[in-house]
Amino acid sequence: MISTAVLERVFRAEHGRAVAVLARVFGDLDLAEDAVQEACAIATVKWRSEGLPPSPAGWLVTTARNRGIDRLRRESARADRHAQAALLHASEPFDEGAVPDERLRLIFTCCHPALGTAARVALTLRLLGGLTTAEIAHAFLVPESTLAQRLVRAKAKIRAARIPYRVPDAADLPDRLSSVLAVLYLIFTEGHTASSGADLTRPDLASEAIRLTRVLADLLPDEPEVLGLLALQLLTESRRAARLDADGIPVLLPDQDRDRWDWTLIAEGQDLVRRCLRLDRPGPYQIQAAINAVHSDGTDWIQILALYDQLLALTPTPVVALNRAVAVAEVEGPAAALTIVDTLDLGNRHLFHAVRADLLARLGRTGEAAESYDEALRLVTNEAERRLLQRKRAALSPASRG
């Protein structure tokens, strides 16, 4: 008898592909998703008693297609012209043994620039990742009803705006691909360091982002920024086991036990970075991956600073400048770094104040450091990060504790 865990793993792996194929068949995301859900419910009963079919993906798509056609027939009988047209297309001959992979089309539909960022993330996780509405709402700390409304509005906008279900033309691909990569990066970032809550990480989100990026890399194997994002995710994820101490407080990268790093992930990430170098089309994700690759080789700060210089030239944002300042502190000293930090308009970010506090402490300006730590503590919303800041604030000299 097949276990629930095995069934869930198969459904999670095949959900996106099945929805993508059915969206192409029916031209309706809601109908495609509902039909796949029905097929999964049927499979749960049937596969438990009979075992997995030779092609679970083909079985789900064929069963979902049949359920969708049944629904269209019922609706077309009520003179629903849309249902009649969809039924005509959906009833065309279909070869279960040659199910196409339509996920790339669905990825670009979910991540269309006409949709808001939150909607893109929710649609990607729901339709391609197969996460439930409740799971996505929990991960991003919003009420389930809010997330459900977000999904409904996004699908309605796709229909109303006639957002095409296709891969962009070659001329449009770079701009559209950046939107897709931004969504996958956002999902991974939230999994790596949760924006709020008690836990430092959300491993399920990080794993899902990596899985979806692998799908994208398989579908677009010659796009260096896709490979760069995957490398960045793998190299970052490789350190997860070493990121918390026995008390559940974050351990900064220089203090981590490298024996606890996942060197299999590191090797794969480094190999991807080398593939990116051979393609010779550098981009922000590739450079961030290269920075993480250098960290995995022993942290050469001069090389890291040079890479941050390249990254800042490509993406001149205050956040990149803040990260570069950390490298400047290691190469040129904390005073040079503080000069940079004090020019940045990031006063609403707790990391800005945490970095500034560290630099001030290294310069012996402990009173000012304490004030910066206090401001970071006021802004931080992740409890694990809060405990680290409290520890660093308490480690300042007694006279600076206020």
From TrEMBL:
The keyword Transcription regulation applies. Residues 176-276 form the DUF6596 domain. Keywords: Sigma factor, Transcription, Transcription regulation. The keyword Nucleus does not apply. One of its GO terms (biological process) is DNA-templated transcription initiation. One of its GO terms (molecular function) is DNA binding. Residues 107-158 form the RNA polymerase sigma factor 70 region 4 type domain. It comes from the Bacteria. Residues 11-76 form the RNA polymerase sigma-70 region domain. PANTHER family: BLL6612 PROTEIN, BLL6612 PROTEIN-RELATED. Belongs to the sigma-70 factor family. ECF subfamily. This is RNA polymerase ECF family sigma subunit. The lineage of its organism: Bacteria, Bacillati, Actinomycetota, Actinomycetes, Pseudonocardiales.
